[in-house]
Amino acid sequence: MRKFLFNGAILSATFSGFSLLKSITAGPRDWRLLLTAVAWAATTAIAIGNVVDAANDD
Q: What is the rounded CA–CA span in Å between residue 10 and residue 30?
């Protein structure tokens, strides 16, 4: 669990997720917001995959 909490990619994905939530609630909803959400989901999935892969190597 500590590997997830202190990983830079996970922290970055978390903070960008907060920014995404803020823009979802406050900003206009158009196709750019959808692309931002898809990019955030892909980034988060890659970050989690990298942490799991690094944990399996140890």
A: 27
